[in-house]
Model the fold of this input.
Amino acid sequence: MSTRGPGAAAERRVAVVTGAGRGLGRTIAQVLHREGYAVVVTGLKQEAVEQVAADLDPSGATAWGVSLDVREKDEFERVLAGSVQRFGGVHVLVNNAGTARAEKLLDISPDSFRDVLATNISGAFFGGQVFGRYFAERGHGRIVNMASLAGQNGGTSTGSHYAAAKGGVLTLTKVFARDLAAQGVTVNAVSPGPVESRAVEEIVGPEGVDALTRSIPVGALGSQEFIAKAVVLLAGVDAGGVTGACWDVNGGLYLR
Done:
């Protein structure tokens, strides 16, 4: 799979991944790096993202770990500037950072509601703004937003604030795709159902994982590796014909 950009045959493409210190974000960073990308690994915990980057490339030549609070627009601007300085440019943004809380609808506090929305939807919005402007000025870029089945069907165990935020991410994907298409920038979403991850187990518990698996038509939790490969496809130079799309990876839990 080629990672070369238009007009730059020898250029290594660079991807920024948010929320990449653990879980799905880490897997996405690993697969992008394996496919030839230089990867900027970002997350709230500096030590965690530095470790992921060191595991990818101990020399630091093709991987960099840097803290990023996606709730703040100027944090994205700082990471973009640092990435350009370190690697010469950026070609892909993966808005993966998110948080879910298993809280009952009528028990969600104002602070919890604001925090979940700030991480999940504000992060996608600010990242899309900062990197979208940069990509548009260059005439090429790829933004991939991590949505969720919860944003399509209202969710079950992930909390209504999470479901509302991920529904917003799907709408933002369409808005950014529409407004940036003419500048050579594509914006798409990947919408996973339950996946094999520590995060899912933390929400539903070990026994809940078994029950959840039995409820999935294909009889298996989603694969983080496969989801990461879908991100790679949407991030590719030759993916210009796909924008404003949402790729579902939910095992048949939501059909449309």
Q: What stands out?
A: The two ends are 30 Å apart (CA to CA). Residues 112 and 161 are 8 Å apart (CA to CA).
